[in-house]
Every structure is written in structure tokens, then in C-alpha cells.
Write the C-alpha cells for this entry.
Amino acid sequence: MEGFRPDRRQFIKLCTVAGITVFAAPALWQLSRAGQKAADVKMPGWRGEGPDPAFRTDGLAKVTGHKIYGRDYRARDMPGWPQNQHYALVLRCNRVERQFTGFDWSQIPADAQPYEKITAESLAEKGLKLPPFYGDDMLLPQGGSPHYYGHAAAMLLFDDFDKYATAKQALQFNEQVIRFGDETPPVRRDPYAAWRIIRVEGEGGPTGEDRYSPLQDGIFFPQYRNRQVEWPTEANQAGNVSERGIYYANQIRSEVERQAAVGNWHLVRGDYRTQIVEPMMMEPEAANVWLDGDRKTLHLVLTTQSPQDFHEKAAHLISQSELADRIENFVVHSAFIGGGFGGKDHTIFPYYGLMAGLFGRGPVRLANNRFEQFQTGLKRHPFHMKNTLAVDKQTGKFQALVSEMQADGGGRANFSASVAMVGASAIQSIYYFPRNDIASTANQSMNVDSGSMRGYGTLQTMNAMEMMVNQAAHELGIDPIELRLRNASETGWRNTQGAVPQVRVRYREMLERAGQHPMWKERAHRKQMFEERNPNYFFGTGFAIATKDFGTGSAAPSAAVQIDENGRLSLSIGFIEMGTGTQTSQAMLLEPLLGRPADECHLAVVDAWQALQQFQTESPYTMSQEHQDKMSTNPLWTPVVAMASSASMSAYFQSHPVVIAAQILFKHGLLPAARSLWQRDALDPAELVWRDGALHLPDPEMPPLPLAKLAAEAHRAGQVTGVMTHGFNRWAWSDADFELDGEKSTWEIDGLALRRGGQGGPGGRVVAGEYEVQKRSAVRYPKTALNNAMVTYYAPCAALVEVAVNRGTGAVEIQGLQNYLDCGRPIVRALVEGQIEGGIAMGVGHALYEYLPPLGEGAGNGTWNLNRYQVALAKDVAVWKQQHEILPPESDNDPPKGIAEVCAVPIVAALSEAIFQATGRRFNDTPVTPEILRRALNPEV
Amino acid sequence: MGKISVTMVVNGDKVGPMEVSEYTSMLDFLHEYLNLTGTKLGCGIGVCRACEVVVERDDGSLEVVRSCINNVGRFIDKKVTTVEGHARRNADGEIEQLAPIQQAFLEHFSFQCGWCTPGFVNAAMVLIDRLKREPVAAEDLEATISEALQHHICRCTGYVRYFRAVKDVIESTPGLVKSEG
Ligand code: FES
Ligand code: FES
């Protein structure tokens, strides 16, 4: 057996964390195996001839069933691993109200015995503890009561598949194997976080100085008493941040009541609830982990969306355990992801895989089936909002927004704190409010934990806003699109946090286009016609719009672009492919700048960036301006070294360092090469054009220079042949000055390394040792005060929908659907359209079908699957009738925007409004299932 | 654990006889015994259709069968095609030509993560096979496609691009749509 040796060329050293060296193995999908040729990213033909690529870079592999996903790999697929695959099974508690007293192992069939039973005690013995982000009690200790439904109690390891399958059959729904004793009170903890967004505009209106806002005044926090939030009560206009905040909050609330009482303002006030939603990515989570004891090396194949974070935390976990001296290396085998939607971002699952591997006597595979995925996978937070929207009766202008929202985070905190914050900051949707008081709490509960599922709090809160706006329009007798036009925020106006969005807002344009659509203009007539022809149906039309913030306020993407002597371009990025087409669109980014798309695009790269030699210190969210200023003088410091992937992030954030790397490669590699080949000292880059992969001058005397020729010259002459960049974005990009080839230039990055000459690794991979770090001479980071801004990047989307509601069954059929999106400049149009369609299906599911009850009846009890949990099918989304309009970019320089999430949002409120217009029943809660609607329409039955 | 002996033809290759536990699902058999992982687990209970494989009936016509809820025993001595088996490959196993439906799914950007793709490929192959024998009237084509693919779950795409790709292939393959009159 050939094992891992750190000196072998195919493993590339990434970094050392907590004394453990992390290596990257070649991407798994590039492996060949018997009878199947590797269908890797080199598949010829994906680029095609047209302006857009012919198909996705990963398309061939996916359409032919090639092994590419983390879940696909078994021990025998892995070079150097033992052939015999072991399997792990997790036993989980399906109740919470009793003490866990042990196991009845006699429930395991005699011919299906595990060779290892891992319990909390086994973990404690070896000092293995979850990283703090995930909380405590990875396995529930005997004597405790479960913290939440689905809390894991033990893991069993089997040395062959048949034993594992037999045991799983016997144990999965077995009520005896985990024993429970006395009744215990439920486990309760303080809320995970609470936020307050109070703003009152000043004399200068939407663009002037605020009287009070989080951006200007800072933020303050409550105390927790009896597991409840208690906001300060002291109010003082001249006091500290909280006293002033409470003063203005009180003022807003009393003004709302007073103006309503005297008849000036119309109030829409209500409770708005959203359900627990399962991300339902189609690939359930899996891990395959082998500890090669002889070589002190741990091999990992995972399905996570956040591999960098896992490796770092896992290394710390091991270094603090009794196993520290048994493991010196990690080898990371990266794979494609079969859907994520945030459900695989910072999930606890890989840590169970890790534990299985650590106790295994061979490679151990842990793979959720769908019941287990429902039972344990991260969910979308259910929100309960109490909202008041105040509208001036004369002008139809929004005067105030007051909201109190509770998000249920479930049994482990995960991202609940930030989801509650983002939800609160998003409720304003596209509108301008002169005053707002929004309070938001993320609570602990015994539900399965929720995480960063698509929407991240905004789908919940923005739809509540859209429902209120539709209701206000109805009650005030104003056309809903007209009401929106009167209240849409404009470029340069402040949001509820007091910040000014960084991108131009095109809400007005989008609203006007929707207002002209026949589905909208002729809606009364169409309703009449339809109902005449179909007497068993109600017909209605609904509209909603949303604008999704994207970004986290501390984006730190890296990229490397390099060219070999033959002109092959390779691109490396930290992001991974979750299906959205990141690899394809990122590869395409190079074409306008370097004449060709990337020949290879390496994803999930973690290794290369060490060439930048960067380090970080404190949390980018909480560091002081002083700390930032002081650290900025060190040319290798950065607020954040690496970031996690999310679908909405790649288009905007990952593209940025890619484009800059390509620009630098052009300016300092290919341009000097062109000068020398054309023997022209002065070349104006503005005159040059790429055509058919060659650089052209307008001068017909000058022969075009193919990329290969330029590359060969750049390599020969010692020009730049590889550029690695790192950017930092805190709602604005940092920029820095560098001296390159004797010339000072400024780029919107904070880290840079260059390669001259160099061979690269296999398949054009980056070899960090070939790069030389370029120390910046000065850097300007966005002020730390922008942390209070919460979010300032937006991409808007609107949905116009017609429905027919069956009077008897309550079933809703979409008759027509028109979607509008502003995605900036789309990199690959077909990929954007696919995102829109996918978002709509997910939004339809949220609006009409998807539902998990809380607690004991819910997913944590282990009995949920797709037979009970209904997602949208083709028949539910008007497959043959969907129309989309992507607003044309305003210029070629428009940045692409993150849109994966926003497309799922407005369809939800558009559907509730269409149902109201059809039936006269208004629903503030989701989902409106056929059953709910049937009962509302036929109360007597 | 009772054992059964299994033989069948998978993607043109004879498989077995192999001894496997009698409760082994076809999906587990493909994954754990044959190491063919192109067929995907979605739900494991017969709802989502990610796991469909193509089986040849005695009369040579094709049908789709869910591999998650059918034991391997049901496939003994059958000819089975999985997503790995549709493209034409050379002696080295390199892909020379895709099935038209695979090509169309590529060109339409039909899928994103691709987990549901094998199920759609197989269901569409079987639909096309059926239409060769029983062509459909042009005005019924959309409904026919909707019906054939109605149970398939895709969480990424919203189905639109799958359905359009299938329609394209059917319309451009002579004999699948009844000519007028
Ligand atoms: S996995 Fe077989 S139908 Fe879902
Ligand atoms: S493409 Fe991801 S489930 Fe269909």
C-alpha cells in the first residue's frame, strides 16, 4: 500500500494550524479510475464559440455520473487508502423531557455488532471537545437530558457494509436502544443575541445627518433576565448611546399612536410568522475520514461549504486533545457539493465524521440518509414578528416602522445571532423610513438548530414588509405599485441603520416596468375572464419586490491567476462550487482581460494563500479603529485572512480579487511582453483589443500576438507570470499602494504576491514557493465604524404572479409568473437565469408547502422525509410559463451582484397577495398550504 | 443476514454472481458493491426520483425503476443502465459521444449542483424510448413531458431548463412527435 508522505509532490502544503500541517491533495474529480476517464475541468468544448460558454465546466462530469461529490467517494477510490471501508452510525435522542440513562445494546442484532461504541465518556477520555462555535456536549453524557431534539448520544463503528446496514435497519427508528429515566425540566439558555436598530432622520432628510442612528451613534445591548431580553429603560436625549436610543424609540412609538389617534396616519399592524424550513439540498451530508496512524496523518473527504473553517477548527480541537501527538498532518481531499443553500455552511456534521475517523480502525464513512439529514441538518430560522407600519393618509408616504422580532435558533447557536441581525436590518426592504425602531432577538430552543440558510433572515422579514405594503395599498385605495414608487428609497438615501447603500438602486425602474406589464395593467379584466371561464376557481394577481443585502461585512477573498509558457491560464480561488456555476463564471472573468477564459479553475484552494504571508489579529467586527490603524502599518497584516463560501457571495466578492489579479498580470506580464514583441516602447492599453485569443493593435502593420506568444515572452524576459491577490471588504474595499517594476500603483486589494517564471504544480496549481510577497507601502481599510452599518450592498428582485385557487381544495396553481432582477453585469446569463428559476421554486415552497412543526413533532424526532415535507415540484412553478427580465447593466463596468438568495424572496409575498386578491383571505403567516386555504374557504366542511 | 446470489447486466457489463445480503437495496448494491455512485440517494423512500435507473423489459422497451426502494433481487438477470452507461465511450473508457438528452441538458444549463441529474437523464431516456413507439401529438407534448417528469425533485433549478431541454430533444428527433393531419 502506498501511503501519504509529506514530501510527495501531489500533496501541497497549505498551512500549519496549532502544530498540525494541513495539506491539499489533488482535487478528487481529477482522479482516474478503472473504466472511467477523468472528466475534469479540462474537458474541451465547454467554452464553445458564442459570447457565453457552451456549457458548465463541471457539466460533463455531472451529466455522466462521474464521481465528483464528497458523498461519492469510498475508501477504494482513494489513492493510498486501505480498501476496506468502515461505516459509522449515530444514535440520536428523539425526546428531550427525560434524563438519558444509557443504552440497551441488546437491540443490536448479533450478526451486526459494531467494533466500537463512541459515547460522551469516550470523547471525554481523549479530551475531544467541540469548537466553542458549536457549543458543548457533542455526544450527550449519561445522566443529562437532551439539549434539543435529535441530540446525538453515541456513534457505532462497523467494519463492513452489511453489518452497518443491518444495524441501521434495526436501530434507526428503535425506541429502546437509548434509555430514558426521570422527567427533567427542559434545558433553557439565554437568547443567543439581541439587536436594536433605532433611527430618526434629521433636518436634512434622507440624505442629511441623522438625529440618531446605529451608524452615527453606535449600538447598545440588552440584559438577559429569566432567559428574556430586557432593554434598558433609561431615556435621555442628551445621555449615552442607549439612553439616547431609548429616548428616540419611545418618541417613535408615542408618535405612531398619537398620529393614528388624530387620523393622520394609517397603521398596518399585525403578527407575522414564518415556519421552520429544511434547506433540502439534494446531497445529504457525508464524510469519509481515515487516520493513517503510521504516518500520523488524517485524511478527510467532506461535503462542507466551509472547508477552511473546518480545517482550522479541527486542528485546534485535536491539538487540545490527548490525540495531539498522534496526528501531525491533515490531508484535505476536496470535492464538489451536491447543493448547499447554507445548509452545509459551518455545520456540525463534519465533526461527527472526524470523531468517527479518530476512533476508526480503518477509513470510516459517515453518511446521513434523508431522515437523518432532516433530524440534524441546519434549518431556516422561523421568525415571529410583531410589526407596525405607519403611512401618511394624505401622501401615502411611510412614516414609521416598529418591529419586534423573535428568531428561533434551536439547540445550538450557530449563526443565529447574525441571522437575527440581518433579518432586522433587512425588514425595510426597498423603502425609506424617516423613523424606525426594530428589535430582534435570537432565541435558544429545543428545536433542531437553524443556520445560514438561503435568505439569512431576510426572506422572513422582507416578506412581512411586502405583505404590510400590499395591505396598506388595499386599505388606502392606492395602487400597490404606485404606493411602492412613492416610498422606494433612492440612491444616496440612508437605510434604517443610517448607512448609505454602496450600489446604485434601481427600484423605481423595476417598479415602473412591472407596472406596465399586461398581467398587472389588465388584472381586473383577467380575473373576470378567468373566473367566468373557470367557475371552480378564484383568480388573483400579486406583486412584491425585495432587495437582498449580500456580504458579511468582512469579506476576505483571495485569487491567483497564472499563465504558463504555452499560454495556458489557470485560476485558483478559495470559493467552492455549490452548483451555482462559480467555476464557470469565475473562469469566464479572465476572458475580457487576458483574451481567454481560464483553462483550469481550481476551487476551494486553501494552500496557495500562504504565499501572501498575511496574518490577522482581532475579530474584524469588534476591533477598534485604533487597533486597525496600528496594525495597518505592518504590511502583512490583514483584518481577515480567509473567508467561507456562500452562493451569493461569489459573484461580487470572489470576482474582485480575480479581476485585479488578471489586470496586474496583464499590466506587468503581458503588456511588457507585447512591447518587446512589437518593439514599441509606448503602448496605450486603451488601444489594445483581444480577439480570438490574440492581442491586436489597431495598426494593421502589427501582427496580432497570440496569448501563447505573449506568455512565452513574459516567461523568457522574467516578467510577471502569476499574480496572487487578497482583498478585504467591510462594506467597501480596502486599497493599498504597491511599487511594481519601479512604478507606484494603487489597487483595491491589501495583499499581493507575484510569480516570475515558474512551472506551477500539476494541472496548473499554484505552488506557493514560486511566489514572492510584495509588501504594500500604504493601505487604507474601511473604517471600523462601518461595522455598525450592518449591510449596504443590495441586489433587487421583483415578482408578479397570477394564481388560480381551487375553491374546493384550496390548491393554488400559478397561472403566470414574471420576474425582474437587477444583477449588475451578469457574467454568464444562463447561470443567472437558472438561479432565478431555482430561487422561485424555493420561494414557492416556502410560501405554499414547506413546513416542519416545532419540537417533538418536528424534524428532530427523526421521522421526517420527503413523503411529509413537500417541496415545490415542476407542476407548482409554472414551468412552461415563467418569464424573467434581467435589467440591462447600466455600464460594462457594473460589478456583478450576488443574487442567489434574493430570487427566492419576493415570490413569497407576491403569492400571499395573489391569494388575497383571489379569495379575499389575507394570510400573514407562511406557508399557506392547500389545507389551510381549504379550511379558510370552506369553514363549514 | 440471509444472502442471495445476484447476476445482472449493468451498463453492458455482466455482473456477478455475487453474494449479497437479501435486504440490500439496488441503490446500495450499485454504490457499495459495484462502486457505481452516479445513481444518487435523495430521499431513500421512493419520492424524489434521484435514484432512478433504466431497466430493459422483455420486449426490449425501457422503464425507469427507483433503486432506493427496490431490492437488488428484483434486478436479477435484468439489463440495467445507470447514468454512467448512456454515453458512448472508447476502449479506454473516454467519452466519445453523449446521449442527445445529456447533450441537451448541458447546452440548456439544465442543472446546477447536478445531484438530481441522473434521475432526469434516465426518466427522459425512457420517455424518448416510449415516444419512438408511441409518438405524441405536438399539442400534447408539454403535458406529456410534465407527466413523465412530474415526480422528480430538483432543489436548485426550478425545473424550467430540464423541461425545455427535453422538449428540444423530442422536437428535433424525427418520429417522436406525430406529424400534422
Ligand atoms: S432516492 Fe429513490 S426516490 Fe428518492
Ligand atoms: S441541480 Fe441540484 S438538485 Fe437539481
Notes: The domain at 194-276+380-551+791-937 of chain A is CATH 3.30.365.10 (Aldehyde Oxidoreductase; domain 4). DSSP finds 22 helices and 35 strands in chain A. The radius of gyration of chain A is 29 Å. Chain A touches chain B through 74 residues (CB under 8 Å).
